[in-house]
Amino acid sequence: MWGGSRLSCSGNRFLGVVLSRYRGTQTECTRLITSAVYSENQFSWTPQTKSWVFSEYRIMWFKSYRMTFACLNRIKIYRYPWTRLYSTSRTTVDSSEVKTFLALAHRWWDEQGIYAPLHSMNDLRVPFIRDNLLKTVADHQPGKPLSGMKILDVGCGGGLLTEPLGRLGASVTGIDPVDENIKTAQQHKSFDPILDKRIEYRACSLEEIVEETTEAFDAVVASEVVEHVIDLETFIQCCCQVLKPGGSLFITTINKTQLSYALGIVFAEQIAGIVPKGTHTWEKFVSPEKLESILESNGLSVQSVAGMLYNPFSGYWHWSENTSLNYAAHAVKSGVQDHPVPDEFVFKGETEELRGQDSTNAGAQEELKK
């Protein structure tokens, strides 16, 4: 029933797919796929059954992280009805962090409580987001400068930043993996009918949003979040994936320095009790240089990085040239983006882009006939 095809590939380490021609006139079929991964001196084979959609006489391209190979022989094209770049099995959510914030879910809107520094931080981060977004639009409505923009607030907590962005006219989606945080946020926004229409809250992870939609938001905000995720690079990749070309990513976080350990953990958590013990893990802090490197490698151009300092005695934040403690970063996604797809296949059903490669294809087909 299945006729094999020879695969031409490069690289010492590869993922392969054994497939053949399907004989019939159906528009959808179930195929048996065997994937092979070379590790040290042995192959590991894993059979899977998946559903594919095909059209006649196309070219099938397999794309992995480090190599690309073509299977040409006038075979039919098989591809997913949608492309899922990331799987929810690769989560960036730290379960221990979820437990920490679950216990504090009812305290988000206590402006004099443990989240007081985040309430005060809005004096800096809201104008920072607003002003940088306004640079991308020709005009705006008075009183609703962000009207028409779609913003994703990742790790929104109780909605401390989500609501101010909604008041500026934006349509905001706030997501958080802690269900109790979302309940608190929904309850608070219900007191304002206008916000109730502009803001949507969801108890889910960023990876789940990626699997549902891509390039849907004008801006993604991750404020005081990246120091709590378990896989920063995957997190940034996901942020980039949901951003429209030319969209903005805003991050506020803590630098990884000796000073941040002394003040952010020893003083703030263990001595002064400004934040609960165990809220932060110094090893998860990230320097502006490392963050910029990750952003740039994912097609995001860093526009600005600014230091932020908190005065525990006055309870206010102010901007600073010193980034050794807290800092804010703004990056913009490039207009043409090649998404990184680690260890996944991308199936391209259109062959128009390959028409200019006739000579290469001809050589590859001759190889397949041998």
Automatic annotation (TrEMBL):
Membrane topology: Peripheral membrane protein
Entry GO CC: extrinsic component of mitochondrial inner membrane
Subcellular location(s) of the protein: Mitochondrion inner membrane
Keyword flag Lyase: no
Enzyme Commission no: 2.1.1.64, 2.1.1.-, 2.1.1.114
Major localization class: mitochondrion
PANTHER family, A to Z: METHYLTRANSFERASE, UBIQUINONE BIOSYNTHESIS O-METHYLTRANSFERASE, MITOCHONDRIAL
Residue numbers spanned by region Disordered: 351-370
InterPro entries: SAM-dependent_MTases_sf, UbiG_MeTrfase
Record-linked CDD domains: AdoMet_MTases
Binding positions (Mg(2+)): E224, E227, H228
UniProt xrefs under Pfam families: Methyltransf_23
GO molecular function: 3-demethylubiquinol 3-O-methyltransferase activity; metal ion binding; polyprenyldihydroxybenzoate methyltransferase activity
Function summary: O-methyltransferase required for two non-consecutive steps during ubiquinone biosynthesis. Catalyzes the 2 O-methylation of 3,4-dihydroxy-5-(all-trans-decaprenyl)benzoic acid into 4-hydroxy-3-methoxy-5-(all-trans-decaprenyl)benzoic acid. Also catalyzes the last step of ubiquinone biosynthesis by mediating methylation of 3-demethylubiquinone into ubiquinone. Also able to mediate the methylation of 3-demethylubiquinol-10 into ubiquinol-10.
Cofactor(s) for this UniProt protein: Mg(2+)
Protein name stated in the entry: Ubiquinone biosynthesis O-methyltransferase, mitochondrial
